[in-house]
Amino acid sequence: MASSSDVLDKTAEVSGSLDMALAHAGRLLAQDPALALAQADEILAAIAHPQAQLIKGQALRLLGRLPEAQAVLQPLTQDQPRAAGPACELGLTLAGLGDAEGAIHHLRRAVALRDDLGRAWSVLAGLLRAAGEDQEATKAEMGAVRASTRDPQLIEAAIAMGEARFETAEPILKARLAAKPDDIAATRMMGELAWRMGQLDEAITYLLRTLELAPGFAAAREFLVRLLSQANRLPEALDHAAILSAQTPQNADNALLLASMMVLKGNQQEAKAIYEDLLRQYPDQPRIWMNLGHVQKTLGDQPAAIAAYRHAIAQSPTLGEAWWSLANLKTVKFPPEDRAAMLAAIEQGPALEDLLHLHFALGKALEDAGIYADSFAHYDQGNRLRRPEVLYDADETHLDAAEHAALFTAPFYAPRLSEGGCTAPDPIFVLGLPRSGSTLVEQILSSHSQIEGTHELPEMMMLTGRLKARVDQGEFASYSDLLRSLSPADRTRLGEEYIERTRIHRSSDRPYFIDKMPNNWQNTGLIHLILPRAKIIDARRHPMGCCFSGWKQHFARGQAFTYDLGEIGRYYRDYVAQMAAFDAQMPGVVHRVIYEEMVADTQAQVASLLAYVGVEFEEECLAFWRNKRAVRTASSEQVRQPIYRDGLEQWTHFNEWLSPLRDALGPVVEAFPAPPADWAEHLGLIG
């Protein structure tokens, strides 16, 4: 007779063998459900085990034998009402059979028992959304995301992404999606990974797929809005921001995101309405008051803008951007108590962004008061704080200008202008340096009945960036080599792409439109290559006045060369030399407007400008300040009044501190408005 210990050993042996068999059958499900089914049947022939029944039901479902799966799973769920697995499998099976009501019932049971069943949450979300239960569907979608993020694979991928080990994260996520193509969290993570790796279009594709899987995934939609905005796909960004705001009506941040997309799209009035509605709900939000002020300024309602900025400052005296926004109107004079308040805010040691804004604003206030030494000190401090925060390489700008001058010559254009390039005459490029009078030129032109003013459009810069990325990736030895390689069809396609991409900024049927991106001086040659009928206007101002004005201007974004007097001087000199080289090779292509000459004889300069564009003279262009169009640049208020001379010599009050600028400009100062005699030598074309 066997001892009790022998019986226990035999029982343990049998139990261990059963566990191994069940585990083996479970592993087979993903690879070979038919073999898993055979294994489960073999176990069930020996013992009626619920885990084997579950594996059999799963295998039948995976094999598409849904009625048989239901027959196995239905009694199992009744026998085990507290088990999540059978309820989940029966729910998935019923969903496949088209029994939505039954599937929803069992899937809800499953996730109530275990909330880490990602597949159950995902299918439940789809069924609920199809049934019109959108709020419940959104909750289920978020349940699927939460379940997925507990997965060890995704945690490993997330850690790798956080540490910028993209080469580790990418194969993990791709393997996950190969196995589970409907995994919401993995799809969104692939979108973030693509964005971090600089693959913006691919990132957008993954985010769109995420929202196909989970339309209520608010965080994914918010990320998509920002990516679409970054890609300058503004209509799509606005559409998704509107959906997001409607899905989350109590979320003020999403309403603010919608308003910011409206501002970018040019829908200023709609943005204004959102800000005003938010302020009725949350009147003590200084940043919303400030944003309202920005819109009021753009719309030309200066009193309302000032009042909004003052509200923001009253609620947050250290909010540097609100102080700077007041100063940036260029028409507000600060009394002594304002200057004292700004100084007190600086002494409180606010965050860097507030601090540098305060220095720029106080510099403007002191300049207006005639306290020039202190004014310069605050401008200087603001620039010193800002400069380390931006990336800029003056040597790179010089090399780019030299490359431009060497490439875009008459012999280069001779065979190319006869074929290829988009022949649309629509664009009028106004370029140069910021604070050069370009907004004035834009306002004059946009007062004409045939010309639409837009704003500083990023499309040409984006096209250039995409072309240069091909050089960076090693496809071409240099940017010049790439441009030489462009076929007539390539040049036509690029020009047509620019025209198509800029349509979103146009709101009228006027035949011409203005692109006032100042930095496009660096793309003058490319513009003429792909848009040979486009007009190019170079707005230029005295180098000392222009550069000093740019240096004391804190730009919202871009213009990284303006935060050091020596660097902005070098930038201006390279710009003048490159444009001189282009003029020498392609005379008459670029029309130059000298700001000081426009001030001295406005009518003659306007007549010459309109003749170059090819439109009839209109008197309204001389009364440009009556133009009610939205203006978003720093000169918005200055162009809403007649031309005045007061600003021409402002830089002279600071002359004793401007030697770094004067030294960097070199012979450009004395030669103005002509280029200096050494422009070709400066670019390395001779000598």
Q: How helical, in percent, are the residues? A: 55-70%
User: What CATH architecture of the domain at 394-682 would you give?
Assistant: 3-Layer(aba) Sandwich
The average pLDDT score comes to 89
Low-confidence stretches: 1-14, 629-641
Order of the strands making up the biggest sheet = 2-3-1-4-5
Which fold name is given in CATH as the topology of the domain at 394-682?
A: Rossmann fold
Q: What is the 3D form?
A: elongated
Q: Distance N terminus to C terminus?
A: 111 Å
Largest sheet: 5 strands, parallel
Oligomer: single chain
Number of helical segments? 36
Number-wise, the strands total 5
Please write the CATH class name of the domain at 394-682.
Answer: Alpha Beta
- CATH homologous superfamily assignment of the domain at 394-682: P-loop containing nucleotide triphosphate hydrolases
**Strand fraction:** under 5%
Give me the Rg, rounded: 33 Å
Derived structural class = mainly alpha
GO molecular function: protein-tyrosine sulfotransferase activity
Organism: Novosphingobium umbonatum
Protein name: Sulfotransferase family protein
Keywords: TPR repeat, Transferase
